[in-house]
Amino acid sequence: MPAVSDLTQETFPEIREAVRRLCARFPGAYWRALDRERAYPTEFVQALTEAGFLSVLIPEDYGGSGLGLGAATAVLEEIHRSGCNGGACHAQMYTMGTILRHGSEAQKQAYLPKIASGELRLQAFGVTEPDAGTDTTRISTFARRDGDEFVVSGRKIWISRAEHSDLMVLLCRTAARDASPKPSDGMSVLIVDMRAAVGNGLTIRPVRTMLNHATTELFFEDLRVPAANLVGEEGRGFRYILDGMNAERILIAAECIGDARFFIDRASAYARDREVFGRPIGENQGVQFPIARAYVQMTSAALMVDHAAALFEAGEPCGTEANMAKLVASEASWFAADMCLQTHGGFGFAEEYDIERKFRETRLYQVAPISTNLILSHVATHVLDLPKSF
Ligand SMILES: Cc1cc2nc3c(=O)[nH]c(=O)nc-3n(C[C@H](O)[C@H](O)[C@H](O)COP(=O)(O)OP(=O)(O)OC[C@H]3O[C@@H](n4cnc5c(N)ncnc54)[C@H](O)[C@@H]3O)c2cc1C
């Protein structure tokens, strides 16, 4: 039987085929061993970098492939459908967008070609703080100007891949919230060179989680960052990271689609083969309907992801669509995960089947990079004109 057919898979067939071939070199056993140790998939990230898959969004003038977000969604979807995980490296694709869209020409020349070649890893994106939560305007990590440097103090949480990145795009306050005309004013974006920073004002503490995600807590104590590393204008940083967040949500939605396809492929194959009561379990409609429902949900969500990516590529406003794509895709992947575990019965819990690992991995997406409630709140107030609750 073929793997699940679909309405959207025709996009970028050569890229998809090449990603599948690469991922075949990193089978379940590779990921299970890393998962046990919570270790970083260095070889996998290196292979993707060398193949050029992480630089698809960087313009050709700066050494990348100059493709649009649709190509990047194809890469990440295939990684996840193959049973691999793009969480270790997806940020290398889109975090550079803040520099590309808002950095100076000197910054672009200095960083983008090296990010494209893999010489520089820009894998860390520092926004979330323990006391601010989703209310980003409440961040308190502060960058004080001192001559031709900023002096940064504060704390960040859940900053993924910080130990595996040469650079970090950091959002911090450069003016107090109550001293700014709007709460979203007074924040700025700095490019932090992690190699120089660690041990000189920056401390990284890994946070062990239910999935292998290389996430960390960061402590800044008078970290000195050259003023030349300020992206765009001081005080306008929140705007600069917003369009990067739209790209992030669409790309992570594509990972959810890949996960859902992985679970549907696995469940379909198992339901065809596994015989109980003298017949394949998939003959029972109680088993086949949840698989069919997962397929319906995944396909519908995939169309929303494609739509959001097309808007982003066209330079159209896409905040609502990016959020909606992330919501429906994360719910489709979670439904498919639960369905796949149930279809496998007891074997779904065995590590060697990779179902329980992917089940844990795909649960993240209803919380990060933005949680479902906040998306519903956005749709309620921005689209449906319902009263704001905060
Ligand atoms: C593994 C992992 C990796 C991450 N990587 C990064 C990273 O690299 N960089 C980074 O900056 N951040 C990262 N994050 C942070 C992530 O973006 C946040 O965890 C996420 O946005 C949710 O924020 P929070 O955890 O502060 O939840 P909170 O804001 O504290 O919210 C807690 C719960 O309350 C709900 N809630 C809050 N306010 C409301 C409201 N008004 N109405 C209804 N419900 C509400 C939320 O939906 C959520 O369910 C990561 C998180 C994890 C777990």
Textual characterization of the structure:
With 390 residues, the chain is an alpha+beta fold. 47% of the residues lie in helices and 15% in strands. It contains 13 helices and ten strands. The protein has helices spanning 13-23, 28-37, 42-50, 69-81, 90-94, 97-102, 105-117, 194-197, 237-273, 285-313, 319-343, 355-363, 372-383; strands at 122-126, 142-146, 149-160, 167-173, 187-193, 202-206, 215-226, 230-231, 275-276, 279-280. A four-stranded mixed beta sheet has the order 1-4-5-8. Strand 9 and strand 10 form a beta hairpin. The termini are far apart. The mean pLDDT is 96. Bound molecules: flavin-adenine dinucleotide (FAD). Flavin-adenine dinucleotide binds at residues 125-128, 133-134, 158-160, 209, 213, 215, 364, 367-371, 373-374, 377, 389-390. The site of flavin-adenine dinucleotide (FAD) has 23 residues, from strand 1, strand 3 and helix 13.
Topology:
Layout: H1 13-23, H2 28-37, H3 42-50, H4 69-81, H5 90-94, H6 97-102, H7 105-117, E1 122-126, E2 142-146, E3 149-160, E4 167-173, E5 187-193, H8 194-197, E6 202-206, E7 215-226, E8 230-231, H9 237-273, E9 275-276, E10 279-280, H10 285-313, H11 319-343, H12 355-363, H13 372-383
Parallel strand pairs: 1-4
Antiparallel strand pairs: 2-3, 3-7, 4-5, 5-8, 6-7, 9-10
Helix pairs in contact: 1-4, 4-9, 9-10, 9-11, 10-11, 11-12, 11-13
Bound molecules: flavin-adenine dinucleotide.
Flavin-adenine dinucleotide binds at residues 125-128, 133-134, 158-160, 209, 213, 215, 364, 367-371, 373-374, 377, 389-390.
